[in-house]
């Protein structure tokens, strides 16, 4: 609901002329800036941890986060913020990345936590969550998409560069939704740990995928998908 026509009251009349000043009102509601969204998958973590607090980054995972942070810093962009999942592995990845981006504020959110966004098509035999998990996680991850992935606000004057550190399922679902692909196909994509996915959202609402799961900045022996 960020299309300019959705932001104005078409029934409202100008008190002096009695005519709608539709063109000028539409211009006032149009976005002017481009949003650059960098979706980062967390680094490798301890799979043996039973609770989230025990699923901390491995030594290799910490090295991956350092490489990702260095890569983001090398782009020379003025990042506006880092929004990250509240899960331990995403929080730790964020802390390491943020050392390379001093002064960029960090925001934690439960919306970006890992989960089962929607039943995949085709189905897979090795991963079958309970049906209730799709209802619970799916609503939350869809809320994350609607809350974070949209054209710039009309008041935004300059292009923005934002980092989101979260999880493979969340990123894959967001990519499908942003590109208007069937979201049931999210599991057909694979993302490496510490990878960078770059979405661009133009003022007219059009979305382009610049990179998907890029880890070309990592040495081959540092790349994992766990």
Features:
226 residues; alpha/beta; Rossmann fold; 2 domains; six-stranded mixed beta sheet; 5 helices; 6 strands; globular
Strand arrangement, major sheet: 3-2-4-1-5-6
Share in helix: 25-40%
Terminal Cα span? 37 Å
Shape: globular
Report the top-level CATH class of the largest domain: Alpha Beta
For the record, the CATH architecture of the largest domain stands as 3-Layer(aba) Sandwich
Rounded to the nearest angstrom, the radius of gyration is 20 Å
CATH-defined topology of the largest domain: Rossmann fold
* Tally of separate helices: 5
Order of helices and strands: HEHEHEHEHEE
Low-pLDDT runs of 5+ residues are none
User: Mean pLDDT across all residues, rounded?
Assistant: 92
Domain unit count: 2
Strand content: 15-25%
Strand pairing plus helix content: what structural class? alpha/beta
Number of beta strands: 6
Biggest β-sheet strands, sense, barrel = 6 strands, mixed
Which homologous superfamily in CATH is the superfamily of the largest domain? Phosphoglycerate mutase-like
Family: Belongs to the phosphoglycerate mutase family. BPG-dependent PGAM subfamily.
Catalytic activity: O-phospho-L-seryl-[protein] + H2O = L-seryl-[protein] + phosphate; O-phospho-L-threonyl-[protein] + H2O = L-threonyl-[protein] + phosphate
EC number: 3.1.3.16
Protein name: Serine/threonine-protein phosphatase PGAM5, mitochondrial
């Amino acid at each position: 609901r960020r299309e300019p026509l959705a932001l104005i009251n078409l029934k409202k009349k100008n008190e002096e002329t009695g005519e709608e000043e539709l063109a000028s009102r539409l211009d006032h509601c149009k976005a002017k800036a481009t949003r650059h969204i960098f979706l980062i998958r967390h680094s490798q973590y301890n799979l043996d941890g039973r609770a989230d607090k025990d699923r901390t980054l491995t030594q290799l995972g910490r090295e991956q986060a350092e490489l990702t942070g260095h890569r983001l810093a090398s782009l020379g962009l003025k990042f506006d913020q880092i929004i990250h999942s509240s899960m331990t592995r995403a929080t730790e990845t964020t802390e390491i990345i943020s050392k390379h981006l001093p002064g960029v504020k960090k925001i934690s959110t439960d919306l970006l936590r890992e989960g089962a966004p929607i039943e995949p098509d085709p189905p897979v035999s090795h991963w079958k969550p309970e049906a209730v998990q799709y209802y619970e996680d799916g609503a939350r991850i869809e809320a994350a998409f609607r809350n974070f992935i949209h054209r710039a606000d009309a008041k935004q004057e300059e292009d923005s560069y934002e980092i989101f550190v979260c999880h493979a399922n969340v990123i894959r679902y967001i990519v499908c939704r942003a590109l208007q692909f069937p979201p049931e196909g999210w599991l057909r994509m694979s993302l490496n740990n510490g990878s960078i996915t770059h979405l661009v959202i133009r003022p007219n609402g059009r979305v382009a995928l610049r990179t998907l799961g890029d880890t070309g900045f990592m040495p081959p022996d540092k790349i994992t998908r766990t």
